[in-house]
Amino acid sequence: MTALVGRTRARGVETLSLDSTATRNALSAALVTELDGALTDCGKDPDVRAVVLTHTGTTFCAGADLRDPPDPDALVGLLRRIVELPTPVLARITGHVRAGGFGLLAACDMAAAGPEATFAFTEVRIGVAPAVISLPVLPRTDPRALARYYLTGERFTPADAVRLGLLTVTADDVDDALAPLLDGLRRSAPQALAETKRLLTARVLETFDRDAAELTALSARLFASAQAREGMTAFLERRDAAWVV
């Protein structure tokens, strides 16, 4: 089978690249499994000092693959893997982030995006809710500012994403923006990084422990609903859903 996650390493930084451009890097069952395995390998390797999660093509991640969606428990496991990994994980984004892609973005410890990036929580427009991805998103964002984009599904910019708390930095050259972050991680002691990350992610993991089962059940219920079937059909047929007025 063709690999869905590219892997390269340079000076202790492992770069994992989502490489399913035919589906705009949508989160299929296969992609979730492969990415989880790659992250597990990175967490066990003492030579990996940081992980950069990036993408090929013009889309970082289009959300769940509607034709081959991952099991909600598997998606929760992947997001928790990123949060719990003792090695810092940084998102490098030069394209679009939609729906479930925010789970990956928010689970990362830091994130940088270029000017080509666009963002949208599109779940409400296909009849579901940003349920599972809320596990890492809600603890790391401003809830009042986030409400606009959660409820309307409208697009927003990298500057908006910084204001919300979803991005660390945006710049014309995303690699220039990442360079000082990676340099700082290379100069930091691995043990100290792991324990400092544990301090930073404690609140996020509390949310996983408290809410994962409820939000997974909500996701499954909504995806099985009549409105979701109509919304996903309308999306695939490139038309407005029946409820649009």
Automatic annotation (TrEMBL):
<keyword id="KW-0456">Lyase</keyword>
<dbReference type="InterPro" id="IPR014748">
    <property type="entry name" value="Enoyl-CoA_hydra_C"/>
</dbReference>
<dbReference type="InterPro" id="IPR029045">
    <property type="entry name" value="ClpP/crotonase-like_dom_sf"/>
</dbReference>
<dbReference type="Pfam" id="PF00378">
    <property type="entry name" value="ECH_1"/>
</dbReference>
<dbReference type="GO" id="GO:0004300">
    <property type="term" value="F:enoyl-CoA hydratase activity"/>
</dbReference>
<protein>
    <submittedName>
        <fullName>Enoyl-CoA hydratase</fullName>
        <ecNumber>4.2.1.17</ecNumber>
    </submittedName>
</protein>
<comment type="similarity">
    <text>Belongs to the enoyl-CoA hydratase/isomerase family.</text>
</comment>
<dbReference type="InterPro" id="IPR051683">
    <property type="entry name" value="Enoyl-CoA_Hydratase/Isomerase"/>
</dbReference>
<dbReference type="InterPro" id="IPR001753">
    <property type="entry name" value="Enoyl-CoA_hydra/iso"/>
</dbReference>
